[in-house]
């Protein structure tokens, strides 16, 4: 059904106006229109995904990284990643991003309300990619971001205004917050909510915002390829394949120096 819809021909104007109906929405979700003009963006309904997008230059992607880094200290990881992207889209596109409530993902800090599950940066990245590319392609892009998060020695990003000096990078082999940050804290020799841990997570937020934008740029050019397969069926249930890295006797041990960087936070946190 989907391939039949995508083979039908619709004009750009018909797609934006919605006169193409479900077929137009499907074509948009598959990345049929990489970006919109300002006039077309103004006609796009905020209730319909995807939203308008304009490609980012390398300098703008770095700027998004700095925004994400600084915003970590205002709303933590998920908010930081999402806001790094959305703040830039507000400048480049305007509405509907101008009215978008970026604070909606603040709950996802610390692996969702502090429960140490999926890293909040990936939730923020997923919201952003879905807004821009629609649910299906947005999920595929987020899947690539998750793979990057789990298999890259992080953090990579070096901010313009770091809050603390850090020495270490680590590969988490997992999108799970407590495993990722736990391994890093053990390697760095610091505790949770230390200045170093905060700086590390702020930089990782930047890394995920920047990676998402790189992939959205590829999508806008019609060059994005979904290469990552999630391990959803590996154990006949949504899961990962490295559970024993943390469960049992292998829980990452940190220095026990808890909360020494709280004065770096801004606002109500």
Question: If you had to describe this structure to a student in words, what would you say it looks like?
Answer:
This protein has nine helices and no strands. The protein is mostly helical and 269 residues long. The protein has one domain. Helix 6 (120-133) runs antiparallel to helix 7 and helix 7 (135-151) packs across helix 9. The longest helix has 35 residues, at 58-92. Mean pLDDT is 83; it is low at 1-42.
Brief descriptors of the model:
0% strand; 269 residues; mainly alpha; 49% helix; 9 helices
What fraction of residues sit in β-strands? Answer: under 5%
Shape: globular
Number of domains: 1
Q: Cα distance, first to last residue?
A: 48 Å
Total helix count?
Answer: 9
User: Count the strands?
Assistant: 0
Mean pLDDT rating: 83
Topology as H/E string? HHHHHHHHH
Helix content: 40-55%
- Biggest sheet, open or closed, and with what strands and sense? none
Low-confidence stretches: 1-42
Evaluate the radius of gyration: 19 Å
